[in-house]
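Q: My labmate handed me this sequence with no annotations at all. I'd like to see what the chain might look like in three dimensions before we decide whether it's worth expressing. Could you predict it?
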Amino acid sequence: MAEHIDKSRLNHDLRYRFDFLSKFIDFNQDDVVMLNTLAPIIFPHLPAMVETLYRKLYSFDVTKRYFHIRNDGFESFPINKEAGITLDFVQTEYRKDMFSVYFKRVLTQGEWNDSFLDYLSRVGQMHTPRGGSTSINVDYMYMNALFCYLEQLLVDVIWNTDSLDSRKKREGIQAISKFIWIQNDLLTMHYGSTWNKDTSCPSIPIVKLTKCLFR
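A: Here is what I predict for the chain of 215 residues:
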């Protein structure tokens, strides 16, 4: 007999939605452990991967344009073009660091509890006006393409790691793929009209910059 799923609950209960998706794609604690195992393998490659991701974003005008828009938290940042300090440079460096922080948390998270699911949900939410910043409204197509490209980079790292045998490589690639699709779903729901939970995002801080580099 088919398991009953409350369709309306999928649209307002994040844990229920995640549990259903996890069952459907067979994502479980073994995948979480595999992501943790991949952390020390992927971390050394992360700076180069982030640079590659942002070079890709800068290679198309439709995605590059978002780095020329002055976002919330950057209103009073002083521009000094002679010193090479431009708005797009500063905002890009900030986002690179935030992406690194985000992905390190994904790889090191030992328990996908409600707090972590909320964190993944906010990754999608904060790129829409629902996240509390009217200056950020990134087209879902570009977010989807970015995560697809990220998956390719991660698979390449795993595939070329000699310390992993073929079974571990397969398990690692599967765990990464499942994570990407879970994150993609938690992106999608904020771009659609079916997600009915309160979409305010007060826990996303407004950026207060004191210097131009964040590393």
